[in-house]
């Protein structure tokens, strides 16, 4: 049985070699067609390398400031134990992966597209720059009358403006925008923007980081700022009342100057004013303490994003070189024609 299996294996191997020789001889007989296809593919590869514009990549990396339990955090915790709400920890919804999604949100991207940049001594928006780069007005006549002026308020846009911004947003999200952690073990987030225009890639990358940074900081400090504003208003109000009480004491004392000691009832207004002064002084002291702690809390919340690397010109460029285009085009053309010849020969054998 073992000998029979060995014989069958040898026969199968011989058959495989014979089939391989047969195909090699057939393809060798078609060398002219294969060479022509390879030359044609090389020409196409060279044309591709000359026609296709290079792609530029702008990269920006940043780290989030971590909140530690010690230091200022301990002071704020102690203050909270006495009933002082100082607004710490606001905006936690934008930590980690949620912050990455914030970069991809339509609101952040659209706000970035409406920021002004200077191109050829003219101030235009990034949305306008994107339309010009992609020559949308040449292909879409409806865009001829639509303009995206820098810093235009969103409420003044029409449905057409919204539709165009939506198309730009989807196109950027699909082809140009990458945001994420390259290494899960490192808390550094990388932002990359690719474009056929070097300046657009750089400006949009930096603009998006600025917009998200502002929104993130505003969200994180919103509660602390609101609390500090309330404390400031209360402090100003009590200080005004204290000043009025002090003035009232002085007026009452003037009215009772050299008063007959038997007429003590006329000293009551002065005594009441003294009580007001003492009460307002105590309240003002506590409010000032809380206001200072609120300022500490606000300083603790900002800044929250530390930029590590920014895009620097010239940007990283990806382009198919002439030699690579010729080589890859020739190889691809030859492979395709070989597959075609094999397929047609098999079809003829079946017939």
UniProtKB/TrEMBL annotation:
**Is Amino-acid biosynthesis a UniProt keyword of this protein?**
no
Q: Does the keyword NAD apply?
A: no
Gene Ontology cellular component list? plasma membrane
InterPro entries xrefs: Bact_polysacc_biosynth/exp, LPS_length_determ_N
Q: Single GO molecular-function term?
A: protein tyrosine kinase activity
How is it placed in the membrane, per its record? Multi-pass membrane protein
* Keywords carried by this UniProt record: Cell membrane, Membrane, Transmembrane, Transmembrane helix
Superkingdom field:
Bacteria
| Transmembrane portions of the chain | 31-51, 325-343
- Which organism's genome codes for this protein? Flavobacterium soyangense
Q: Where in the cell is it found?
A: Cell membrane
All copies of domain Polysaccharide chain length determinant N-terminal, residue ranges = 24-112
Protein name per Swiss-Prot or TrEMBL:
Lipopolysaccharide biosynthesis protein
